Amino acid sequence: MENYNILRGKDKIGENLIEIFYGETKLLVELGKALDGGDELSDVEKAAIREKYDAVVVSHYHADHAGLIEQKKDCPIYIGAGARRILEAMDEYKGKTLPKNIVAYNNGKPFYVGKIKITPLLCDHSAFDSYMLLFEAGGKSILYTGDFRFHGRKNSDDLFARLPRHIDTLISEGTNIGSDKPCFSERELEESAVELFKATDKPVFVLQSASNIDRLVSVYRAAKRSGRIFYEDIYTALLAGAAGGKIPRPDVFNDVYAFTPRFVQDKRKEMFFEFEHKRGVARIDKGKPFVMLVRPSMLGFLKKLAAKMNLDGALLIYSMWSGYRENDDVKKFLTVAKDLGLVERTLHTSGHASMQDVKRLIERVSATKYEIVHTAPTDSCYSPDEFNMAD
Ligand SMILES: [Zn+2]
Ligand SMILES: [Zn+2]
């Protein structure tokens, strides 16, 4: 099965669209949205939605991989079971329901579409429940990596044990190709966060993506280790609840509390009141020192908080790709935070493999041929698709 066609993604960061076909079966791998495309669909996106496929297979929920899946109704769309729960939670927050043709696959459990065997292999990335996808048919194999890294919180041993010894074609992400900088790990990031949190008795705010569950764990652990309680806004708390397991969330973790950044009258108000561990603005500074997750949309809330408590000298950790600093809402948030007296520090690591780790993978699967997608010339270790503007 040498048959594939990279419709988009070879000279772009993200937005992969790849066709894989064998015999009568035709698959589309990924159905993302151009990150700079606004609400308008491009011609290639319109064609992908219109085209007849037997199935769409998606590696993870980031918008540049899955942003358009709800618009394709005419075939099954496969995504990881945990990622599907996250998408459901995102939709619930927006008052929507996830379409029924979006169905779940599980780690290491092969499934067939026509004669093509598809095996999802769980990997580490800045999105929860992300997979590499192995396609096999007619004695040939294609491994598509989706987005991955080896420096996250997840141990790569299980993935390495499951990877075949030989692949005919490897289609790998290459976000950090062009940079020889190693990426520091999530665990190193946690250590740096502990040091920063312990060095102050002021409140700590962390600007990060709600759907970056690995980062959520790193920041929560640093909060706990520095004797602080942890505040999650209801959107993050919903996503953390959908992830489940050992992911920090209100009620299940006794030091995690929900807060609501704005006075909401709709269903979201009910969502807030359903949490047992919750605090309104008036009670946020009562009790232990805290770490609170924030996003640019919470600017009004931050101002409200500043009117209730002294934020002068409080810490603001910037924990996203540096490129988002150019976004108007991020710029405004950082400026106002500075005016309120918050002191900014940056703490971030890429959601994508370093160049050394891409090479490690290529060697591990001894690929006859490889293609690099999700790439563009760059000199920094960065994560273009970590930010989820869902709220
Ligand atoms: Zn991506
Ligand atoms: Zn991604």
How does this model look, in words?
- 27% of the residues lie in helices and 22% in strands.
- By secondary structure, the protein is α/β, with parallel strands linked by helices.
- The protein folds into two domains: 4-179 and 351-373, Metallo-beta-lactamase, Chain A (4-Layer Sandwich); 186-346, Rossmann fold.
- Strand 3 (25-29), helix 1 and strand 4 (55-57) form a beta-alpha-beta unit.
- The longest helix is centred in the first third of the chain and has 13 residues, at 81-93.
- The structure holds zinc ion (2 copies).
- The site of one zinc ion has 7 residues, from loops.
- Residues 14, 62, 64-65, 147, 374, 385 line the site of one zinc ion.
Q: Would you kindly provide a brief summary of this structure?
A:
The chain has 391 residues and is α/β, with parallel strands linked by helices. It has 11 helices and 18 strands. Helix 3 (81-93) runs antiparallel to helix 7 and helix 5 packs parallel to helix 6 (213-225).
Strand order within the widest beta sheet: 1-2-3-4-5-6
Structural class: alpha/beta
Give the mean pLDDT.
91
Question: In angstroms, what is the radius of gyration?
Answer: 21 Å
Number of domains: 2
Share in helix: 25-40%
The share of residues in extended strands comes to: 15-25%
Put simply, the count of helices is: 11
| Low-confidence parts | 378-391
The CATH homologous superfamily of the largest domain: Ribonuclease Z/Hydroxyacylglutathione hydrolase-like
| Order of SSEs | EEEHEHEHEEEEEHEHEHEHEHEHEHEHE
Main pleated-sheet profile: 6 strands, mixed
Bound molecules: zinc ion
Oligomer: single chain
CATH class of the largest domain: Alpha Beta
Could you say which overall geometry the principal axes of the C-alpha atoms support? globular
Got a strand count?
A: 18
Give the terminus-to-terminus CA distance: 42 Å
CATH fold-level label of the largest domain: Metallo-beta-lactamase, Chain A
